[in-house]
Amino acid sequence: MPTADETQDKERPLREAVRDTLRTRIFEGHYVPGTRLVERDLAAEFNVSRLPVREALRMLRQEGLVSDRGARGAEVSSLSAKDVEDLFDVRQSLEVLACRLAAARATPEDLSNLKALLDAAEASLAKGAIMDAHRANSEFHDAITRIADNGFLKSALEPLQGRMHWLFRHVSDLPELIEEHRALYAAIASGNPDRAATQSASHIDKYREQFPDNFRRTEPDLHRKKK
Predict the structure, then answer these.
(1) How many CB atoms lie within 10 A of CB 83?
(2) Fewest CB atoms within 10 Å of the CB: 44, 169, 170, 196?
(3) Mapping DSSP to helix (H, G, I), strand (E, B) and coil, where does residue 42 land?
(4) What are the angstrom distances between the C-alpha of 220 and each of 77, 80, 165, 184?
C-alpha cells in the first residue's frame, strides 16, 4: 500500500501527497465505505502535522470520496444505486464531449501516450497486477480529458473523476474493458469527432447496463447509504 512518503516529491505540497495516498487506499478498497478517517491517527501514521491531513480530507470531500458525519468526523463516502445512475448520466454528457474534442485535437504524441496506457493496462493484467491495470485504465480516461484541452470541461469533470475511478474498481472483466478502450482509442485516432463521440456513448452505455449488477455483487452492503 503506498505511503505519503512514496507519493511525495519536492515539487508538490505535502497535503497533495497525503490526499493521493488516501485516494489510492479508497480506490483499492483498503478503506471501504463508512471507514472513519481520523485526523490525529492519520497524522501520526504519516508522521506529519494535522494541517496537511485536514487539507487532504477537505480536497477528498470536494471529490465526493469523503463525507462529513458531524461528531463522527470524516468517513469514506457511500454510494447508492441512484448515485451510480446519476454519475453515469453526467459522465455521458461530459465524456462524450471530451472524446469528440480529443479526436479533433489529439497530436501524434497524445495518441502515443494513450496507446502506452492501453499497453500498460494489458501488461499489468498479464502479470496479474490487477490494481495497476485499473490505474492505467483510469489514467486513459483522464488523458482524454487533458487532450480535449477545454478548461470548463476539465473543471466540470474533475469533481466526478474520483468517484468514477472508485466505481470502476468493481468492473470485473478487465480484458473486455481494455478492448473497449482500444476501440475508443481507434475512434479518437481516426480524427473523426462524430465517430469518437459515438464510440464513447456506446462504451458508457455498455457499462451503465452492466455496472449495477457488478456494483451490488461486489460490495452489496457497503455501498448503500447509511440512514
Answers:
(1) 16
(2) 44
(3) helix
(4) 14, 10, 18, 30
pLDDT, tens digit only, all 227 positions of the chain: 555 554 444 446 899 999 989 988 887 778 888 899 999 999 999 999 999 999 999 999 988 889 988 777 899 988 777 888 898 899 899 999 999 999 999 999 999 999 999 999 999 999 999 889 988 999 999 999 999 999 999 999 887 877 877 777 777 789 999 999 999 999 999 999 999 999 999 999 988 887 755 555 555 443 443 33
* H-state helical runs in 28-150: 39-46, 50-63, 81-105, 108-126, 130-148
Distance CA 181, CA 89 (A): 20
| Rg over CA atoms, the chain | 18
133 to each of 23, 28, 75, 163, 166, how far by Cα in Å? 17, 12, 27, 17, 14
Q: How far is CA 113 from the centre of its chain?
A: 18
210 and 216 Cβ atoms separated by less than 8 Å: no
